[in-house]
Amino acid sequence: MKLYTQENFESMKQLKQDLDEIGESDRFTVKMIQRRLRIGAEKAGQLFSDLTIDKEDGE
Predict the structure, then answer these.
(1) DSSP structural state of residue 4
(2) Containing H/E element for 12?
(3) CA 47, CA 35: separation in Å to the nearest integer?
(4) Which pLDDT score, from 0 to 100, does residue 1 have?
(5) pLDDT for 7-45, tens place per residue?
(6) pLDDT higher than threshold 60 for residue 56
(7) Which of 41, 32, 44 is nearest to 5 (CA)?
(8) Using CA atoms, how far apart are residues 44 and 59, in angstroms rounded to an integer?
(9) Is residue 38 within 8 Å of 45, Cβ to Cβ?
(10) Which of 11, 15, 19, 42 has the fewest CB atoms below 10 angstroms from its CB?
């Protein structure tokens, strides 16, 4: 069960891509997601996990 919205997923996916482009992908963390979306650790953790798994599957 997803704890976040598709809108949240898309906005964080874009942020992750932007950070990757400028070479600062190491700054993309669960804490950053929490601060940007003002959500709890559980939601942020799931979103982070789904975004990082999504990237690994695409490579």
Answers:
(1) S
(2) helix 6-21
(3) 13
(4) 77
(5) 999 999 999 999 999 999 999 999 999 999 999 999 999
(6) no
(7) 44
(8) 23
(9) no
(10) 42
